[in-house]
């Protein structure tokens, strides 16, 4: 039966894989959002946050005397690659990006809330602090997406209608 520390280490390795997956997904989104500069700019900012978050998780793992899981990291990267490929065929990329990103940010936020609680239970207050900090960043990104999804949707629909009118001519 795993101890609190062993569970925390496992979940930190999961979080590391999750951040690597997020990095790949965000990079793919950035490449396809050239017509949505505000959305793209915020995704670029969040990519920088995500890279820093991965580094923070690596620090937690190192401080705890363990390391990321190569297998979990590879699985996360594979999942991100598949997600990126599905975006290539979506004509409504910005809308899909808002949907997927919002859901993923909420998933990340609750993951870090759980990690902070587990770290407290294991007596690792520094990991708890780091995870609570990352949780706040993920919640902020989810809130930004929720607030800006309507604007991105309107922009997409306006562009789509303009393209339709152009095609009729």
List key phrases describing it.
Ferritin-like_SF; Ferritin-like metal-binding protein YciE; Ferritin; mainly alpha; Ferritin-like; DUF892_YciF-like; 5 helices; elongated; single chain; 169 residues
Structure summarized in a few sentences:
It comes from Chelatococcus caeni. This is Ferritin-like metal-binding protein YciE. The chain is mainly alpha-helical.
Structure description:
With 169 residues, the protein is mostly helical. It has 5 helices and no strands. The chain has one domain (4-168): Ferritin, CATH 1.20.1260.10. The chain is 87% helix and 0% strand. α1 (4-31) packs antiparallel against α4 (93-121). It comes from Chelatococcus caeni.
CATH secondary-structure class: Mainly Alpha
Q: Whole-number radius of gyration? A: 18 Å
Q: Fill in the CATH topology.
A: Ferritin
> Percentage of helical residues?
over 70%
> What does the largest sheet look like?
none
Class derived from helix and strand content: mainly alpha
Q: What's the overall geometry?
A: elongated
Low-confidence stretches: 85-89
Number of domains: 1
CATH architecture annotation: Up-down Bundle
Give, in order, the helices and strands. HHHHH
Organism: Chelatococcus caeni
Protein name: Ferritin-like metal-binding protein YciE
InterPro entries: DUF892_YciF-like, Ferritin-like, Ferritin-like_SF
């Amino acid at each position: 039966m795993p101890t609190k520390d062993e569970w925390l280490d496992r979940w930190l390795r999961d979080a590391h894989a999750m951040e690597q997956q997020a990095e790949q997904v965000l990079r793919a989104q950035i490449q396809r959002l050239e017509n949505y500069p505000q959305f793209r700019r915020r995704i670029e900012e969040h990519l920088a946050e995500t890279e820093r978050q991965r580094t923070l998780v690596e620090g937690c793992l190192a401080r705890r005397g363990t390391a990321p899981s190569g297998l979990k990291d590879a699985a996360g990267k594979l999942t991100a690659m598949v997600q990126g490929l599905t975006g290539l065929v979506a004509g409504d990329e910005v809308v899909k990006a808002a949907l997927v990103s919002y859901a993923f940010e909420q998933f990340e936020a609750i993951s870090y809330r759980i990690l902070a609680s587990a770290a407290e239970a294991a007596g690792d207050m520094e990991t708890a602090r780091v995870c609570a900090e990352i949780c706040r960043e993920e919640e902020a990104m989810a809130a930004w997406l929720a607030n800006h999804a309507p604007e991105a949707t309107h922009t997409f629909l306006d562009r789509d209608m303009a393209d339709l009118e152009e095609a009729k001519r």
